[in-house]
User: Which sequence fits this backbone?
């Protein structure tokens, strides 16, 4: 259940499959400190996400430049295709219980009233990129309670547990749409903004990280200037395009060190570094370990 990396495809979506085709729901108990870069990096996915902070505190950042901090016992809903990342807040670490599930788990065909009347408005709602959950609000406390019950059901995996989890998630979905009806009735706005631009540039990086990329090339992917590229990265994900590219290369390199027998030199060149010495220097700086030591530790 522990997930320790987020590797995305050329579209910026995660490579990790969420659940499987018959039951499209994945459940994780994650220690955020165990992720490759010490946080959950920027990514997005089509699935809906619910999580509860089991221990510590977490800071969740969204592509619209907003962020929020949650403590143990609190949680959040992250809508479909919302760019987000997470990092530990404070000095006590952070462990999360997370459900990531496809909309078809709640409604299997597009023409159903569940899709047209409830799911479509929720997934397309500009004002509901996220919803924080606290125990002081009755209906939000109910959602937190249902997530914890669903997790207990998942842990036991008794006969029929999939039906019970689907029922819990359906009830949670009902509580959200019932209490956010006014937001769901707002008109849909479509406009080019930093969020859509950053997705285009991240997609370009994920497709071309093996090459010797320049900031000009990254900016061109979103049809903006080099200066605007730096501004967009800074304002949206509080990073530079160069640093984002570097961290993505390190994330891919870490996976290759764990999961393949490629030499360190081969991995270095495969992820876009020029020399093994520079690769080892940068890897140790960000990962607090040499590539060879990291590979050995991952086998223990």
Assistant:
């Amino acid at each position: 259940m522990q997930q320790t990396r987020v590797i995305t495809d050329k579209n910026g979506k995660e490579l990790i499959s969420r659940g499987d085709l018959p039951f499209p729901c994945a459940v994780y108990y994650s220690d955020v400190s165990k992720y490759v870069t010490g946080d959950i990096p920027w990514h997005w996915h089509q699935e809906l996400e619910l999580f509860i902070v089991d221990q510590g505190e977490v800071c969740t950042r969204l592509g619209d430049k907003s962020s929020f901090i949650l403590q143990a016992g609190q949680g959040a809903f992250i809508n479909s295709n919302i760019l987000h990342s997470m990092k530990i807040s404070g000095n006590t670490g952070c462990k999360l219980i997370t459900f990531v599930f496809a909309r078809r788990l709640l409604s299997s065909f597009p023409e159903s009233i569940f899709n047209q009347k409830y799911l479509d408005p929720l997934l397309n709602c500009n004002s509901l990129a996220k919803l924080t959950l606290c125990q002081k609000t009755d209906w939000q406390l109910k959602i937190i309670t249902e997530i914890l019950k669903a997790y207990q059901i998942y842990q036991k995996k008794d006969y029929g547990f999939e039906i019970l989890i689907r029922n819990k998630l359906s009830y949670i979905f009902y509580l959200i749409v019932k209490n956010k009806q006014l937001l769901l009735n707002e008109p849909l706005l479509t406009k080019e903004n930093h969020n859509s631009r950053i997705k285009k540039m991240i997609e370009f990086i994920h497709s071309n990280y093996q090459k010797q990329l320049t900031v000009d090339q990254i900016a061109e992917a979103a049809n903006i200037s080099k200066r605007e590229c730096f501004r967009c990265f800074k304002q949206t994900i509080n990073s530079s395009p160069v640093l984002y590219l570097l961290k993505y290369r390190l994330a891919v390199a870490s996976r290759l060190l764990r999961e393949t027998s490629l030499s360190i030199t081969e991995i270095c060149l495969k992820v876009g570094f020029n020399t093994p010495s520079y690769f080892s220097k940068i890897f140790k700086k960000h990962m607090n370990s040499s590539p060879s030591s990291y590979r050995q530790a991952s086998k223990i």
